[in-house]
Amino acid sequence: MVECQLPKLNVAGSSPVPRSSPPLRRLGGFLLTGRGLGKYPHGEGKVPFDRPKTNRGLGLPRWFCVLDYFFLLRPMILIPVWLFLLLGHYHALDAIGAYRWLDQLYPAPDLAVAFVAFTLLVGGIYVNNQIHDHETDRRNRKLYLVCDGYISIKKAWVYQGVVQALALASCLWFWSSGYLWVILASILLGFFYNTPPFKLKGRPVLDILANGLGNGFLNVAVGYVVVLPLTWGFSTVCLPYVLAVGAVFANTTAMDTEGDAESGERTSAVVFGIRAVAWTALGLMAGCVVLAALWSVWPALIAGGVSLPLFIPALTAKRKWLKLSYTAATGIFALAAAALFPWFLPFLVLMLALTRYYYRRKFGLKYP
Q: Could you tell me which residues come within 8 angstroms of residue 142 by beta carbon, excluding any fewer than 6 positions away?
C-alpha cells in the first residue's frame, strides 16, 4: 500500500512553515509569490488509488469537505462557461449601446445571478458526468473525487439535484421565458450528453457538436438573454463561438483516447484518429475567424485569430502540442472576456490559486 504523507510546507529559501500556519496565510503566500504550497508527492502524475478516502485519514480539517463539494463542480473547466457567458452579455449590452467599461468593474446584480446560477447548473452536469463515467475516470486516473470514493455516488446524485434545483430557482429572479428556455435546454443537453443510451459524449461528431452548442450557443445565450430576447440576429453573434468551442473540445478528446477506447467510448478521436481530429479543430478555429470577420464579432475575431496558429503544431498529434492548443486558446478567450469585464481577471486568479492549493493538499498533485 502506498502511503501519501502530506509534506511540511516550505517557501523556497526559507525554513519550514509551522504546522499551525493558517490555510489563508499559505494561500496568500502562493498568491503573492507563486510558491509556498510545498512539495507535490505526485507532481503532475497520477494519484494512487490506495489512499485514505476521508479528510481525517488524510490529515485534513473537517471544513475541507466544503472544498470537496465545490471542486466536484470542476471550476477549472467552468472557465469556458464563465467566459462565453460574459461575452454573450457584452454583445447584448453593445447591441443597445449600454456597454461602458467603467460600469464593469464589478458584476451587475442580474449578471451576478445568472453567473452563479449557470455555474451551479453546468457544474451539476459535470457531477452527472463523473457519476456515469466513474469507471472510465478510474482507469484514466483522473477526477478522483467520485471514481476513487472520496464522495460516494449516492451523495453525488443528491448534490447534483440540489445545485440544479438552485439553478432553476434563478428563473424566479428574471421571470423571463427566454431565460427559462435556455436553462431547460442546458439541463436537457446535459442529460443527453451524459446518460446512456444517448450519451452524446461517446458518439463521434455528436460529441464535438454537443460541446459547441453547449458552450458556444447556450452559454453565450444565457449572458445575452439577461439583457435582450433571443432573435435570429443572435446567430451571427454565437456561431463563431460555437466553432471555437468545437475546435477546443476536438483536441481535448485526443488526450483520453486510450482510456476511452478501453471503456468502449466511441469519441471522435477514437473513431477517426488523433490527426483527423486535429485537422478538424484547425478547420473549426479557422471558420470561427472567418465568420467573426464577416459579421464583425470582434472578441471572437481577435481571440480566434491569436489562437489559430497554436492549432497548427497540434497536427503532429503530439500530446504537448494538443494540450497547448486547447489550454492556450481557452486562456486567450478568457483574457478577451477579462478585457471587457475587468473583475473577471482577479476572479480567475483567485480560482487558479484556490485550485492549486486544494489539489496540493488533497491529492499531492500540481494542478493546474
A: none
What does pTM read for this prediction? 0.83
Between CA 59 and CA 362 the distance in angstroms is 9
27-66 pLDDT, tens digit per residue, is 444 443 444 444 555 555 667 766 777 888 888 998 999 9
pLDDT per residue as tens digits for the range 278-302: 999 999 999 999 999 999 999 999 9
Query: Where along the chain do its domains lie?
Result: 40-363
State the cell numbers at 147: 471514481
Name residues whose C-beta falls within 8 Å of residue 152's C-beta, 6 or more positions apart in sequence: none
d(CA 207, CA 268): 7
Largest Cα–Cα distance in the chain?
Answer: 63
Which residues touch 80 (CB under 8 Å, ≥6 apart)? 215, 219, 245, 248, 330, 333
Domain 40-363 architecture: Orthogonal Bundle (1.10)
